[in-house]
Specification:
Elements: E1 60-66, E2 76-80, E3 100-105, H1 111-117, E4 121-127, E5 156-167
Antiparallel strand pairs: 1-5, 2-3, 3-5, 4-5
């Protein structure tokens, strides 16, 4: 069926076959010409970023960051698992999001509980086979909602991550440099001076004289003598 040009005020009578993971916060100005390989991240879901953006500044994006596995100290972590995105069950959303995959003795608890106890977000969870990192393909034995984060097993593979604010990259380099300089100067001066001198000298002299005298005296004497004489006269005129 051809989509409507504008969003309808009332929902459709029949729901779509596959609902989205979460509602969109804002409609996109223009639809993409081609569908994306991965669905966009929703919000407010167990394995999705919070809807409030977690305090991201304007121009920043909330993006997933793989958790440091050494930070997962709460709970019985058996081992870190190397799992390819294609190994997760097909019902798991965004299997390629970077996270720390660990085999955990959840003792009847869920990956959601384990990850939250460690201050992380549960990205996905799936039962394992035996006592290793191999995933059990029978993922639908319990609810597959929230990418399996709420499944309760004696042990399972949990993928925990964190959401961070990251500056949104520009679409491409600008054709022209910015008109205004940056508000703050660079933290450190350049190691090498510029090849060409500045067009205009500084308006005021430096507060302190240079440590070393110049190799050559000035061509013309100063207009005004110095206010204070030198402590020691020169040996020769």
């Amino acid at each position: 069926a051809e989509p409507t040009a504008e969003p309808t005020m009332d929902p459709t009578v029949e729901p779509t076959m596959d609902p989205t993971a979460g509602p969109m916060l804002d409609l996109t100005a223009e639809p993409t010409a081609e569908p994306t390989a991965e669905p966009t991240l929703g919000c407010g879901q167990t394995n999705q970023p919070p809807c409030d953006g977690s305090g991201c500044e304007p121009g920043s994006l909330l993006v997933p960051e793989g958790a440091d596995c050494s930070e997962l100290v709460v709970g019985n972590v058996k081992t870190v698992c190397e799992i390819e995105p294609t190994e997760w069950a097909s019902t798991i959303q965004n299997p390629g999001i970077a996270g720390c995959n660990v085999l955990v003795a959840t003792s009847g608890g869920s990956c959601q509980q384990f990850c939250e106890a460690n201050g992380k977000t549960c990205l996905r969870g799936q039962d394992n086979v035996g006592g290793g990192c191999a995933l059990d393909s029978r993922h639908d034995r319990q609810s597959t909602d929230s990418s399996g984060c709420n499944q309760q097993w004696s042990n399972q593979v949990c993928s925990c991550g964190a959401w961070i604010c990251r500056a949104e990259p520009t679409a491409g380099p600008t054709a022209e440099p910015i008109v205004e300089p940056t508000v703050e100067p660079t933290a450190e001066p350049t190691v090498e001076p510029t090849d060409e001198p500045t067009a205009e000298p500084t308006a005021e002299p430096t507060v302190e004289p240079t440590v070393e005298p110049t190799e050559e005296p000035t061509v013309e004497p100063t207009v005004e003598p110095i206010v204070e004489p030198t402590a020691e006269p020169t040996a020769e005129p």
